[in-house]
Amino acid sequence: MNTLARLRALWAPNGAGAPRGASLLTRLAAWRRKDPEAIERLRRLDVHRRGRITAGQIVDLVEPLPPAPSARLLVYKYEVAGVTYELSQDVSSLPEAASLAPQAVGEAANVKYDPTTPANSIIACEEWCGLRPAKNQKSEIRKQKRPESEP
After folding, report:
1. Is the pTM of this model over 0.90?
2. How far is 54 from 107, CA to CA, in rounded Å?
């Protein structure tokens, strides 16, 4: 039996192949279904690739109490075309952003947003981070990079 005949049997209106076809479609949909973390990662990377950068400000860091799962929500705001947006992003899966987040509250940051939907934005992703190190961290980084001159 060739492939075309098999497909016709699966989609036969008489009902003989309908249960097999529905089962096949269900299995195909389940195979292609992504978990929420993967969907969020793909969204972040899409905004990173297509997004524009604007200035924003970190408003708050929301951390749950210890028995709860370790999600770190970084609340930030920015303005595009006269409209102010205030959003949050879970940065717990992004090590660089998670380490900078506690010192970033109240500080300026870069925000990437989708030009077609400005409410779709990120403060960090796997390939980019809009958080700026605190001033005392910058001086420590410079000291580490600058070799000590020996007398």
Report:
1. no
2. 14
Would you say 121 and 112 are in contact if contact means Cβ atoms under 8 Å apart? yes
10 Å Cβ neighbour count for 41?
A: 16
Instruction: Tell me the DSSP string of 98-127.
Output: HHHHHHHTTSEEEEEEETTEEEEEESB-SS
- Whether residue 143 is contained in a domain is answered as no
Say if 108 falls within a structural domain.
yes
How many C-beta atoms surround the C-beta of residue 131 within 10 A? Answer: 24
**Residue 45 located in a structural domain:** yes
Report DSSP state, residue 149: P
Copy the structure tokens of residue 45.
């990377």
Closest CA to 89 of 80, 32, 104, 81: 104
Q: pLDDT-derived band of residue 8, with 50, 70 and 90 as boundaries?
A: low
Residue 41 lies in a domain: yes
